[in-house]
Amino acid sequence: DGKHTEFSVDDDGVVWFEDRLCVLIDQALHEKAMTKAHSSPFTPLEIPMWKWDEISIDFVTGLPTTQKRHDAIWVVVDRLTKSSHFLPIRKNYSISKLVEIFRQEIIRLHGTPTSIVSDRDSRFTSRFWKGLQKAWGTRLKFSTAFHPQTDGQSEKTIQTLEDMLRACALEWTGNWDEYLCLVEFAYNNSWHASIKVAPFELLYGRKCRVPICWNDVGKRLIEGPELIEITNEKVVVAKEKLKEARS
């Protein structure tokens, strides 16, 4: 029809759409392809040069809807320190809304990353997102979808978070998003197997004080003992669920 197409055929007769392999709509073929992909060796991503230069992003969905209508979590992981941000969102957020959250919660604290590893979510493969990445001077890199060996840290972080959060949801029905910040704190302040220290130790040079020490600087007098007690309880629960999720 004379229209430009992004499809191509390589020397082996394999059909590609841009940089993605095309597979027929056949469940058996899909399962065979995924099994083969998981058993194949992949070159791991290079180790980043500095903190928050290179990040991994993904989503945890299917969570109970909270009173604030949040039903998903945006997981953003620094590939070097493994420090992470867990951002409560709605799964139907627009691209512009996600970009605004990214600017407020990530760029504000860590600056603009040089590369992003994504799971090829449609929100991040859109032309708008790619155009914004180009404007930022960010190179958008894609890990192989559903292949933890390519870039396992975000997948492992997401799985750990999801397991921990679903367990915490039993404790905090309907308002898990209110305590997500404490789950994030517990995760970042806990020992991480791949780096042999807590992410905060690599990020800040030491672990951060837990809320139980707030009274050292008079915070208990300002906030009141009830709030401190509640916060302490939530952190304890989060850390317990984190241990369970990692076991």
UniProtKB/TrEMBL annotation:
SUPFAM superfamilies, A to Z: Ribonuclease H-like (SSF53098)
Protein's UniProt name: DNA/RNA polymerases superfamily protein
InterPro entries, sorted: Integrase_cat-core, RNaseH-like_sf, RNaseH_sf
Recorded superkingdom: Eukaryota
Source species: Tanacetum cinerariifolium (Dalmatian daisy)
Molecular functions per Gene Ontology: nucleic acid binding
Domain Integrase catalytic stretches: 40-207
One GO process term, biological-process aspect: DNA integration
Coiled-coil features, chain-numbered ranges: none
Entry-linked PANTHER family: CHROMO DOMAIN-CONTAINING PROTEIN-RELATED (PTHR45835:SF99), YALI0A06105P (PTHR45835)
